[in-house]
Structure formats: C-alpha cells, structure tokens
Amino acid sequence: MCSHSKKTLEKVGLRAPAQLLCRANTNGHEMSWTRVILTERLDEAFAFAHELHREQRRKGSRVPYITHLMSVAALVGEYGGDEDQMVAALLHDAVEDQGGRSTLDAIRERFGERVADYVIRCSDAETEPKPPWRARKKAFAESVRKAPPPIKLLVAADKLHNARATIVDLDNEGASVWQRFRGGRVNTLWYYDLMLEALAENWAHPILRELRRCVHSLHQAAENMEAQ
Q: Which pLDDT does position 23 carry in this prediction?
C-alpha cells in the first residue's frame, strides 16, 4: 500500500490492513518469503478468543490461556499460514473448551465456513463429558493423518507451542509437571510421538523439524529425571 493511500485511510478514521512478511509454503516442501495482508478480522478473532477464554488458565499454572492461542497464531503466521488459518489458530480450542456446537455456530457466522471447518478439525471433542482420553487422542491422530496441509499446520503449531511450554516448565519445576496431564508422563510422550507420525504422513514441512527437536527434548528430559 502506498503512503498516499495509507494517509487517506487514516484521514477518514480507517486503519490500513497490517502487512506480515512471512514464509509461504509454495509447494508443500519449501518456503519462500511473501507478503500477507492481515485485516481487522484478526483483531476481531483475538477479541472473541479473549472473551471466550478470559477466565481460563494454562494447566497447572496462572498463565492466561490466551497466551497459548496468541503463540499458536504467531507460529502459523511465521510458518506460512494465511489469515483464515491465523484466525482459526486463535479460536482452535474454543469449541472444545468453551461451548461446543453453539460456539462453532458463532465462529461460522463471524468468520465464515472455512475458519469454522479449520476449528472443528482441530478439536478432538465437542461434547461434555469428553470421550476416554486415549481413545480420543488416537481418533484425533487418525483424522490428522488424513488432513490437508492447512489443518496440519494448525495442529503442528499447537503441538509445538505445547511442547516448548512443557520443556520450560520441566526445567523450572521438575517431574511434577507430568501430573498436570491426564495421560501422565508415559501417555503424554506416546501422544507426541503419535502426532508426529500422523503429521508427517504425506506432509514434509519445516515446522515438523522444530517439533521433532522439541519432542526429542521432552523424551530426554523424562529419561534424565527418571535416572536421577
């Protein structure tokens, strides 16, 4: 956008769309730099996500849950996602944690069918009580295995941020961190391995290299703590 157009927008009280220089996935395997124009839909998605998750905290901590959603959206943008994917990243836990189908309907109305489809395909449950943990995780991994690249990027960004946060917490708090997770240490590591395998099926993407490194670090941390 030229400076003249930007000044005209500001003069009448409108903001120019944000511009994000990010790595776009050009052929499913390689990344190149491209300019993505972000609109006020992203602002609205953040506000809606904050409204939905305002009282929620990260497992076993006082960290506001919105920080996880922001981090996942940032990773999606950094690794080549478009605006719809970033919007879905901000809302990816909304159906599962904050209202089920009624929340999905609200997302569809506000942000469109594509975003709603991304969100529901990132959810491993939409009803309460949720199905048994291990069966639910296996079913979700199988759905991700067959998912198209836009869904896999969202899921990979979610798992990557979770893995990074767990590594930091293990370093700061020790083995007690595993007690936060319903699957405990053994099943949590099993699930990360399963998700890596599912994501890598027919999808080679740079984000997987970072996820593999983090999952390897989680295994190493678990082994080191067990040996102590």
A: 53
